[in-house]
Structure formats: structure tokens, C-alpha cells
């Protein structure tokens, strides 16, 4: 199985004001030193200002790959250091954007995470980065990273190994989900669920919408 490394663990640095009904965003994440506890709703010391859009058990943790960050470094001409994407985990050697739905990662000795859904960029993300047409550009590149649920709790820290310990046979990735599924692929996800793959509420919503149009 694929093994990479955890380059950084990131938590909220400051809550920033927003123009939406929540009033604040916790997108300003910064890398922290030392071990961090992982629980069912994410990292100890982190905040999810709007769990409707960026939290809850199926979106407890957001991971982004260094290879995608390197792309944006070059594209934007700026340093997209850990936390710049609002991510909790910056990983290397693991393709978070193309992780298979239901794939499981072991991080360090004890923590196991499960890939649930791709990230959808929002206006708060664009305002935070102050990049023109950012939501459109980020979405078009489909380097969106992945949300994860916590299967096994524990501690993690920068330098830990990240190992893909299970990858479902259906093979459908978050990258494909974000790009748009057809009816056959949506049905494959439902079939995979019957075989034991857990589909998040977000994926169920996407699948249901596709099959209504089929």
C-alpha cells in the first residue's frame, strides 16, 4: 500500500469575520509543533465555525497534498505553506484529491482516517486568499483535497507516516465526484455501500441528485 508522510498538522490561528450568516470563518489555519489529539470531530484546539459546510463527523478533518500545493506555488507565485488551504493535514506522497471514497489512512501509530468527500471551495476561501476568481480557478483545476472521518482516535504530529491501509475496489475518487459522476458511476457507489463502504451524507446527496436526473 501507498505510504507518505505528514508534513504538518494545522489548527485555527484566528477567527476571521465573514459576510455570511455564521459571521466568522476558521479558515486561517497554521502549522503547530508537537503532538495533537484527534477525536471524532477533528483536532483538539481546532474550530469548525460552520459544521453544516465544513464539519461534523464526515468532515472532521481536511487534508491537502504537497504536490497540489506545489502546483499553486508556481501558478500563483506565492508560498502556499501548510494551512493556506484551510487544511488540517498537509501530506506528502499521498494524493488527497484523488483518494478513493472510503479509502482508509493510518497516520502515526494509532489514528485511522477514512476518505469521505472532496472539498467544495467557497467565498470565504476566496476572500482569505485574496486571489482573483479563486473559487472558479480552484474548482477548474480540481485539486481540491479531501475530507476525512475519524475511525480510530489518538495523537498525530508532523513527521508521522501516512499509509493507505485499505482502498475499496470500486475505485471512484473524490476527484471524480467533484468533476461530476454519471448515473452508472453513481450506482457503483451505491453498490459499494452494500458491500460495506460507508458513504457520507454529502456523497449520498450527490448520488441522489444524479439518479433523479437519470
Automatic annotation (TrEMBL):
Stretch forming the signal peptide: none
UniProt cross-references to Pfam families, sorted A to Z: MOSC (PF03473)
Domain of life according to the entry: Bacteria
Domain MOSC positions: 30-165
Matching InterPro entries: Benzoxazolinone_Detox_Enz, MoCF_Sase_C, Pyrv_Knase-like_insert_dom_sf
Protein name, per record: MOSC domain-containing protein
Amino acid at each position: 500500500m501507498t505510504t507518505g508522510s505528514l508534513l504538518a498538522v494545522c489548527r485555527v490561528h484566528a477567527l476571521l469575520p465573514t459576510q455570511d450568516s455564521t459571521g466568522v470563518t476558521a479558515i486561517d489555519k497554521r502549522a503547530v509543533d508537537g503532538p495533537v489529539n484527534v477525536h471524532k470531530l477533528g483536532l483538539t484546539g481546532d474550530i469548525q465555525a460552520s459544521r453544516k459546510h465544513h464539519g461534523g463527523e464526515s468532515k472532521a478533518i481536511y487534508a491537502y497534498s504537497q504536490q497540489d500545493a506545489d502546483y499553486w506555488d508556481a501558478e500563483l507565485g506565492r508560498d502556499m505553506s501548510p494551512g493556506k488551504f484551510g487544511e488540517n493535514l498537509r501530506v506528502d506522497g499521498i494524493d488527497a484529491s484523488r483518494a478513493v471514497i472510503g479509502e482508509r489512512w493510518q497516520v502515526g501509530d494509532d489514528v485511522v482516517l477514512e476518505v469521505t468527500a472532496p472539498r467544495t471551495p467557497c467565498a470565504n476561501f476566496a476572500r482569505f486568499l485574496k486571489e482573483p476568481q479563486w473559487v472558479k480557478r480552484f474548482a477548474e483545476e480540481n485539486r481540491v483535497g479531501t475530507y476525512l472521518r475519524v475511525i480510530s482516535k489518538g495523537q498525530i504530529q508532523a513527521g508521522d507516516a501516512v499509509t493507505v491501509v485499505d482502498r475499496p475496489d470500486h475505485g471512484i475518487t473524490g476527484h471524480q465526484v467533484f468533476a461530476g459522476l454519471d448515473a452508472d458511476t453513481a450506482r457503483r457507489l451505491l453498490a459499494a455501500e452494500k458491500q460495506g463502504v460507508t458513504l457520507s451524507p454529502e456523497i449520498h446527496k450527490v448520488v441522489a441528485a444524479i439518479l433523479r436526473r437519470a
